[in-house]
Specification:
Structural class: alpha+beta
Radius of gyration: 40 Å
Number of helices: 9
CATH class of the largest domain: Mainly Alpha
CATH superfamily of the largest domain: Outer membrane efflux proteins (OEP)
Distance between the termini: 20 Å
Helix content: 55-70%
Number of domains: 2
Number of strands: 4
Largest sheet: 4 strands, antiparallel
Order of helices and strands: HHHEEHHHHEEHH
CATH architecture of the largest domain: Up-down Bundle
């Protein structure tokens, strides 16, 4: 319901020309409802649940109703052993058969129970894969959302520099009019202002493109309009030992490959059960009636139950059962190799994400201090320029230092948030 209200909110604001504020939590919720990858994964889970029945495992009987009939018209000539001849012209015969049949496998070596266990594991695998898709979508949405925030912060930084450049051009114009500086200094200040103005226009396009990219994950139209928050929250703390301990029990990739091993082992067990005898029960209730227009038997009718059984003992199938068992053993081994390989990869990813998180934290602390220093240096340079105590070159360099510091700080904040999101994805924190 919250998602529906939000979409209505967007519609109303688009009509009025304003933009609704989209929080990261709302973005994730909308994606989980609308993202096509999520919808497909959800259907896969439904399919695996639908297939997981005792009937599909072969435990229940098959019951069917059958009926058939035919009409014949023949000219009959019969010569009996005693020499008697019988002739029937246009003899009509009507046959009608109907009944209900039951076929039930009573014993197959326990294969049906193994198959049911396999269906349970397949359903469990589908749920794990769905959760993995949810985690990946959440990661993609958060990354795309805060990229929009990052680009907005970059635009704000550019506009701040434009403000400083506008002030600088005024100072240069006054100084030039007073004859204290060369015209080239004034021209350079105007050129710098134009360049930053161009950067502002380009940055707005970058923001629009980032929003369209986010909309693809949300399942919304590319031109859907919204506004995002102004900052990136960075209050997450980690415990490295807890993350490492939770990895094996929580990571969806590891759980998925472990489940695939379980399924492969059950498939091997299924093939092994093919060596056992197969015992079937057959029962039914039948009606049969034949009508003849002439002859010694004009009507023949039979009605009643029938019951029987069959047993099939596999003696020789050209080595096919053993071939299937050998292939299944290899597939179990391959599944185990895949799990060990993924364990190495996931462990490496976790350690790298932990290192990245800690590094970005340290870099962020340094750059926050550096931003304050470069800003103070820029403001002092502008004041000195007003007093004629420095050159435009020093102010230009101070501006560049400040712009670069702002850009680094914005990127460090974004990288720290992405490292945090990656850690949550690895240990399946929704």
């Amino acid at each position: 319901m919250k998602t529906i209200f939000f979409l209505l909110f967007i519609t109303i604001y688009s009509i009025t020309g304003a933009q609704a504020l989209l929080t990261v939590d709302d973005a994730v919720k909308i994606a989980l409802k609308n993202n096509y990858g999520i919808l497909i994964a959800r259907n896969d889970v439904t399919i695996s649940k639908t297939n997981n029945t005792i009937g599909n495992a072969g435990m229940l009987p098959n019951i069917s109703v059958i009926a058939n009939g035919n009409y014949e018209l023949n000219n009959i000539h019969q010569t009996l052993t005693g020499g008697t001849e019988t002739n029937y012209s246009a003899l009509s015969t009507q046959n009608l058969n109907a009944g209900a049949e039951l076929s039930w496998t009573l014993f197959d070596g326990g294969k049906m129970f193994v198959t049911k266990s396999k269906l349970n594991e397949i359903e469990g695998l589908g749920e794990i894969q769905y959760k993995d898709k949810v985690l990946q979508t959440q990661y993609d949405v958060i990354s795309a959302y805060y990229d929009v925030v990052r680009q907005k912060q970059q635009l704000r930084s550019i506009n701040e520099i434009i403000h400083y450049n506008t002030e600088l051009v005024k100072i240069m114009q006054i100084s030039y009019n007073g004859g204290s500086i060369l015209k080239t200094n004034l021209l350079q200040a105007k050129i710098d202002l134009n360049v930053y103005t161009e950067d502002s226009i380009i940055q707005q396009y970058t923001i629009d493109a980032a929003k369209k990219y986010l909309n693809t994950f949300l399942g919304l139209k590319a031109d859907s309009s919204f506004e995002v928050s102004d900052s990136i929250p960075l209050n997450y703390s980690i415990n490295k030992s807890d993350f490492i301990q939770k990895l094996n029990s929580s990571n969806t990739s590891l759980l998925s490959y472990q489940k695939q091993i379980d399924i492969a082992r059950l498939i091997l067990k299924e093939y092994s059960k093919l060596r056992y005898p197969l015992l079937n029960l057959n029962a039914g209730y039948y009606l049969s009636q034949t009508n003849n227009s002439a002859g010694s038997v004009l009507k023949n009718q039979a009605i009643g139950p029938q019951i029987g059984g069959s047993i099939s003992i596999p003696l020789y199938q050209s080595g096919n059962i053993q071939r299937q068992i050998n292939v299944a053993k290899i597939e179990v081994e391959s599944a185990e190799f895949n799990l060990e390989n993924v364990k190495l990869q996931i462990t490496t990813d976790l350690l790298n994400a932990l290192t990245e998180f800690e590094n970005q934290q340290h870099l962020l602390i340094i750059e926050r201090d550096n931003k304050e220093l470069t800003k103070e240096y820029l403001e002092i340079s502008i004041q000195r320029l007003k007093l004629g105590q420095t050159t435009s070159l020093e102010v230009h360099q101070a501006q560049e230092n400040y712009v670069q510091s702002c850009t680094r700080l914005i990127n460090f904040e974004y990288n720290l948030k992405i490292a945090e999101t990656k850690l949550k994805q690895l240990i399946a924190i929704l």
